């Protein structure tokens, strides 16, 4: 028989709430069956301050990332490595990321654009949209109206100039300078800097001085003048390539007046340079050092340096060492270096394996798009990815990538708004359709509403 007090309590509860809560008997089941009872859980995100990338696949949550906001306790370094086969969305990610970062007023971006379409670099549309003229380095037009960057620009320190000259020569020769060649270059550089009056010293001055060294140079080392000339001959021949060879016109004169280093976006268009030639790493070295001494400044701006085809940097020991120093130096001044590479094996098995490992170690953010199974296993081993992430990399569809932000590993679908799509869609010749599917367009529009809403007024939100 039931307790009268319990009966009274139930009656009173029913009067107040309209019904009495039922008591359920316990159920015995297995974990395999019970998993459907519990709601799924997802790893925590990276916060709500920064730029939105897309959605975390398993939870559907918005995925927001910003190296400057995360730098410190959550992120030991602001540098970022992007990997993956062509056609999976690396280019679209880079471009939307830059466009969204530029909505913050204290951001500035430099892009080394090594790929081209329709005779211009693939960042040309974005530059036009922002009213920016790309800095197009092209040896075919350099002697007429092209852009010049002077390795001996007075804005670069004397030490920086000499280091840059050595790097150019070592990259072209494929080995380091010996002591005698280094001495010949040093004295020629010192003489040119001392005697160039009322003008910028140029590479032609260095080549001329190497061919005709001053007697004082030989006397200082108590050697014959012909010996000093012989020591500098190979160096002169390498530099002559920049003066009168296939790279002529781009670096053998004063820096072009009017290059706007205060523009929010600076694009170096390298699309007219053969990506597989020795010219590309030489260009990377010159542009890298020139930027280090003319662009990176202690003015509280947050800067992003994005390099397409970055294996030209990481696969050359001399250029890799130069950029390694740039990354260490730039971190103190708010620089985030973004390297885009197709295959990790291009760099970790190359001539600069040691330097590549050092640069990869500084990249606390790694984004990996679809790769073949063997490549995915190698990438997972080098980067220390969890097993589950390695197993799904070969199955990823375009636009979806594994993000590893200092050990926080999630699968993210990148979202592109309709306004961004015409600017980032770079494979038009192969895939564009003159009669788009209206249902597909509607679905894309609905999927991008979240980003559009949060990008309308960045002053009212921490998300841009």
TrEMBL record:
Pfam families: AAA_10. It comes from the Bacteria. Transmembrane segments: none annotated. PANTHER family: SLR6007 PROTEIN, UNCHARACTERIZED PROTEIN YJGR-RELATED. This is ATP/GTP-binding protein. It comes from Streptomyces laurentii.
């Amino acid at each position: 028989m039931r307790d009268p007090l319990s009966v009274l309590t139930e009656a009173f509860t029913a009067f107040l709430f309209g019904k009495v809560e039922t008591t359920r008997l316990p159920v015995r089941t297995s974990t395999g069956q019970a998993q459907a009872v519990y709601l799924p859980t997802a790893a925590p995100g990276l916060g709500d301050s920064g730029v939105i990338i897309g959605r975390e696949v398993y939870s559907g949550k918005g995925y927001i990332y910003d190296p400057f906001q995360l730098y410190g306790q959550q992120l030991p370094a602001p540098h970022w490595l992007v990997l993956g086969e062509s056609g999976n969305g690396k280019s679209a990610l880079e471009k939307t990321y830059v466009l969204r970062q530029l909505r913050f007023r204290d951001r500035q971006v430099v892009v080394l654009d090594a790929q081209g379409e329709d005779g211009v670099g693939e960042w040309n549309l974005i530059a036009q949209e922002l009213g920016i003229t790309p800095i197009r380095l092209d040896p075919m037009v350099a002697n007429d109206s092209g852009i010049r960057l002077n390795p001996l620009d007075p804005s670069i320190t004397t030490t920086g100039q000499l280091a840059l000259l050595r790097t150019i020569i070592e990259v072209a020769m494929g080995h380091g300078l010996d002591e005698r060649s280094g001495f010949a270059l040093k004295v020629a550089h010192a003489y040119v800097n001392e005697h160039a009056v009322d003008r910028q010293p140029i590479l032609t001055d260095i080549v001329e001085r190497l061919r005709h060294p001053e007697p004082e140079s030989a006397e200082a080392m108590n050697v014959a003048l012909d010996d000093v000339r012989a020591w500098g001959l190979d160096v002169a021949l390498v530099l002559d390539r920049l003066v009168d060879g296939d790279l002529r016109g781009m670096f053998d004169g004063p820096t072009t007046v009017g290059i706007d280093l205060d523009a929010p976006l600076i694009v170096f268009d390298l699309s007219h340079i053969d990506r597989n030639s020795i010219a590309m790493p030489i260009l990377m070295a010159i542009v890298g050092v020139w930027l280090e001494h003319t662009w990176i400044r202690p003015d509280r701006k947050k800067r992003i340096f994005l390099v397409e085809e970055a294996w030209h940097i990481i696969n050359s020991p001399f250029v890799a060492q130069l950029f390694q120093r740039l990354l260490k130096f730039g971190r103190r001044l708010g620089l985030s270096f973004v390297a885009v590479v197709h295959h990790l094996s291009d760099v970790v098995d190359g001539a600069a394996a040691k330097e590549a490992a050092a640069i990869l170690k500084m990249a606390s953010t790694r984004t990996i798009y679809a790769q073949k199974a063997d490549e995915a296993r190698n990438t997972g081993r080098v980067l220390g990815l969890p097993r589950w992430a390695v197993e799904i990399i070969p199955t990823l569809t375009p636009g979806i990538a594994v993000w590893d932000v200092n050990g926080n590993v999630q699968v993210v679908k990148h979202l592109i708004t309709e306004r961004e799509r015409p600017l980032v869609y770079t494979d038009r010749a192969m895939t564009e359709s003159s009669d788009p599917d209206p249902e597909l367009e509607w679905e894309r529009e609905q999927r991008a509403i979240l980003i559009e809403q949060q990008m309308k007024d960045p002053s009212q939100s921490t998300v841009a």
